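Hi R.,

Here's the chain you asked about this morning:
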Amino acid sequence: MAAKYVFINNQLFLEQDAKIGFSDLAIQRGYGIFDYLKVIDNRPIFIEDHLNRFFNSAKDMYLEVMLTREQLKTAVRELVHINKTPTCGIKLLLTGGYSEDGYAMGTPNLIISQYPLNMEEENEFEMGLKLVTYNHQRQLPYIKTIDYLQAVRLRNFMQENNADDVLYHNNGAVTECPRANFFMVTGNEVITQKENILKGITRSKILDFKIEGYTVIEKDFSIADLTGIKEAFISSTTKYAYPVSIIDGKMIGDGKIGPVTKQIREQLFKLTYA
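And the predicted structure, written out as tokens:
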């Protein structure tokens, strides 16, 4: 197997040699941001959108990105080429940098890493996802930070509730899943939460879709509004629009992919493979 390389601060390292020091604020305080995009047959998908969010997240966290947009795109292409993995996931990670006192920011470390990605396996399903709700509001939800503390902590909670993932709510107001946005389908609307969420790239594409007989909108809604909905799905970079079959033990529709979710998936496929 070919050696796997990682970029750190615009230098290539073998994966086993790719390291940052313990005084980095990402380790000391969990301070940093990232973005994640997919590459299919050597084509970075929606890379301009992902870079927009990456630079906006960096600005909001007062972190300086050492490379320009064009240099980042070049680095992504070089990493895909040298690792000989034309279909993959790419993570751009920017840390808080080395801190003298474990609190003050230093010069950020930029890490670009690559992950195998089997899109067929990621999207094979007979039934949709099973979600369990949990009362939690992410800190700085509009920024894609590296803080997934609650999501990792809740792994046992998910297993205890026979769930595939968690659906957060803020005292009853539905927000998002840890790594995905949430949509519900009512009589004539496809609705995603408007406030207190990370506004995903795939979510933004869906908001522009035309679905016959339906309006796709942003609107706040609660757990109580999930009763009797026709369909539900999550959206993310890797899962496109993925059906949800059960929430808190209650079946959504017949538990299988619904016609609206199917249409949206097909439109996302067209955008991705155009």
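The chain has a mean pLDDT of 95.

Let me know if you need anything else.
M.
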